[in-house]
Design brief:
Largest sheet: 7 strands, mixed
Shape: globular
Oligomer: single chain
Helix content: 25-40%
Length: 165
Amino acid sequence: MCWLCDHPDATVEDYLDILRGEIDKHGWAVQYVEDPRHAFAYTVGLHARGLAELVVTGVTAERAVMLLNGIADYCVKRVQPKPGETMTLPGGIAEFVQVRRPDVHLLNAIRIYGPEVCALQVVWADRRGHWPWCPDFDGGRGSQPVLGARVVRGDNRATRRRRSA
């Protein structure tokens, strides 16, 4: 259930106040969105630091929180990856894709920071190293919607900067 569903007398502004408190306390918050078609999660708070918010689709709430918190911490302490760059993560590799329409998916970030919010999706490869733009990804189940167009940074993988979180 969502927080507002569990608190029927509360308002959206009440919930945003809770998010603001988490952002003040931790630097950002992770918002998980349960959706029957595809659940996803995103950060709220990186925009205030001059960074893109982060989004991940196709993972559990627990995995999303762990993944987004780790990458957000990396971005705040080091540097934020650019679209098309890859990052080695515990358990696999991720590529960053510019989210085409943040206003569609990052509703609470937009409510707090306005329409200037931009976002990067953390797109992960499956256990066999296939990406969601590959027909063999995740056994053909298509369990990771990609929210923007992939940026290919040349065929030479050496031109691609690889980072480790």
